[in-house]
Protein 1
Amino acid sequence: MAERVTIVGAGIVGICTALSLLEKGAEVEVIDRDPPAEGASHGNAGVISPWTCVPQSMPGVWKNVPKWLLDPEGPVALRWGYLPKFLPWALKFLRAADETGLPAIGDAMSALNRPNVDLYRRHLDGTGHEALVGASMYVHVYRNPAEADLTQLAWRMRAERDVPLQVVGEGELHEIEPALSPGYKAAVLLKDQARALDPSAIGKALADKARAMGATFRQSAVHKVQPAGDGGWTLLTDDGELRAEKLVIAAGAWSARLLEPLGIKVPLEAERGYHLVFQNPGITVNNSIMDTQGKFVASLMNAGVRCAGTAEFAGLDTAPDYRRAQVFSNLAKRLFPEINTEDAVEWMGSRPSLPDSLPCLGEVPGHAGLFAAFGHSHYGFGMAPNTGRVVAEVVSGAMPNIDMAPYRIDRFA
Ligand SMILES: Cc1cc2nc3c(=O)[nH]c(=O)nc-3n(C[C@H](O)[C@H](O)[C@H](O)COP(=O)(O)OP(=O)(O)OC[C@H]3O[C@@H](n4cnc5c(N)ncnc54)[C@H](O)[C@@H]3O)c2cc1C
């Protein structure tokens, strides 16, 4: 008989997990209080990089934090009332920068990301939405050419993992991206990757595909999950009590809330990000651009030029502060002087962030039939298809072809 699996969360991670389970012949129900791909998976920067292998917490990162916090246009913001709750996570985050642990983190990030472009193309093949994934480079731009320095640790980590890197000077950079301000004098190019032309539309197209393959999508909030006593799980939802044989928690930044009543503690933080989409930009951007100074990404999508980034720590329930999104108006002008910043659409979403930039994946020790698939921080759009693949393997009792130890849910205990 087909295995019956329930997934909480119809973000890109839940959707990709559903697809991989369906491919294995499972019966799948996905439950989300919202329609598919409306959480963090809606408004991200759309970078799909097989080369992602550098975590957020790097040696020396703490030195920048005071200046970032004091700058209203800076990349990090903290609601001061949230400080007591934030501090324990922040300390774990800083500890993750320990250089001895970095190679293992880099390898584990790489293992999840490496096949992502191929997997997205395969999932989208035949849906009519193949063009939502476009070829791209990741162009890291610098004002000071001396800073485009491949001897720095972050670039060394990439080079050690065979990432195709190239430093280009002013002339070549402006040929690649003519709309860039002449103030940018150099760039590091990461070649052979992809970008989403509409991340949410990709999620919705893949959810439609999952539906066509037999999955059910139920729109309902899950308030509690608990063992059913017969090896299965009970979900208390807006639709009443539901039963799950096997249960995958792919609820993004909200995942820890569902697990905590079971005595499972995970240092999961809502790392809130913002975007501003310039709907009539009047310029073209050919690749994903990383502004290394402002720490945000600019990319041309179907809806316009999207500038996305910011890490705001304020918890899951605080109302958005859209001044954080409006900051991108100035930052975009600094990057592209000719951009038309009128008619901009703002958005906020919560990255599910763990201190070491790795997700929690696999069966939860001591809780048979309960599986983790959350915590992808800044990289979940890129990590989602391979996450789906390996989680489907674990759920069906097979051995994934990557080492699962770095993603254990109890690694912070
Ligand atoms: C500004 C910004 C830019 C980013 N840029 C990139 C990028 O360029 N590339 C990249 O790879 N990643 C990027 N990311 C990160 C990426 O978007 C996330 O890691 C990824 O979307 C997480 O996917 P998810 O499915 O785990 O979570 P989500 O998309 O947030 O989905 C979780 C779902 O669970 C549902 N849910 C939660 N709790 C419950 C409950 N109790 N009952 C019912 N439903 C529930 C929610 O409604 C939601 O739909 C960015 C993020 C942000 C914020």
Protein 2
Amino acid sequence: MQNPFAYSNYVTGDSFCNRKKELSELLGYVKGSQNVLLYSHRRYGKSSVIQQLFQEIKGKNLNISPMYVELYGTISEKDFITRSFHGLNQLESNFERLLQSVSNALKKIKLNLNIDPATGGTSISPSFEAVNETLVLEELMNILSKYSQKRKLVIAFDEFQEIANYTEEGFEKRLRSFVQQHQNICYIFSGSQQHLITEMFNSHNRAFYKSAESFPLDKIESRHYIFWVQKLFSRKHIHLPAELIEEIVARFENHPMYIQNFLFHLWEEPGERGFSNDIIDKIENAIIEKRSLEHTVLWETLSINQKKTLKLILLNDGSNLFNADSLKSVTLKTGSLVTKALSSLMKKEIIVKNGKYMIQDIVFKKWLQKTLSL
Ligand SMILES: Nc1ncnc2c1ncn2[C@@H]1O[C@H](COP(=O)(O)OP(=O)(O)O)[C@@H](O)[C@H]1O
Ligand SMILES: [Mg+2]
């Protein structure tokens, strides 16, 4: 029987747990063509919620066409445009029709047709020959605008913070000027690096200032996991007690990816006679072990004061960090060293402040506890 749990890419359908409230709110924005800024830490489920939303929209015959553009790894305006052109495929079920409507909309640039030799799949990309990118962007936006006159569109730019690193002068501003003209398109700007993405939308000197409804994506609540996990395990005729599911969710502090990762391995265990604590511990340790190289590398990039500050956080459960005894326990001489280290660690998103200071990645936290013998 196929393992229904997955953790290396986005999940939808049966592998997607709940998020009913988020989906319904997002659908409201899509219907109203209201732009949304969807953000969270990495691996909380942004791409998944977008893909699930798109599937539901398609299933409901709402006459709204979704288009998903993955911007991760793009490093220039040209990349942005090329990825977006590839995305146009999603707006037509038929390649000839796509070609036709795109060619009709284009005035100043030529198109290239691409055939993927491996899959035989077809896509289009713009020719950048003898024109500058500004013009190609304009043509792309024209195509989208034309499409949106026939039916509403929802366009997700995933990992949108990437555009902040492009070096082309004024790209954000140009993009924004098109976006604001598109009354029939809901743009979902999705991003992981919170300081980058929120800065793009919250500082008044940036082009996208206040141009989208803020939508922070939280972790998934424990109670939502119970029914979902039980239902999937019942396929194997295994009943997982609610307490066990709560225990797993708590061990990973509700982090969606790690919980799927855990459940994936639990599924592979013979569970007819229930799961012992040893099995639960074994799987948890395997997850920590699997990422230990990544975490060692991260640890080695930190300064000694940052390392001490992490230890300080763990020893004091994230509060009272500046008290003299606490500082002494990790041999940090002054509070100002802590202030400085905290600020760097927050910038790197290794820690977050939520009343108290916390290590953001729960598996990194577990690795630290082991490594520092706490
Ligand atoms: N609604 C969900 N239900 C269950 N697991 C989820 C859900 N959303 C995300 N996950 C888990 O988290 C992982 C990362 O999700 P993803 O959507 O790629 O996050 P992001 O785009 O925020 O980085 C998925 O592979 C899956 O294991
Ligand atoms: Mg993602």
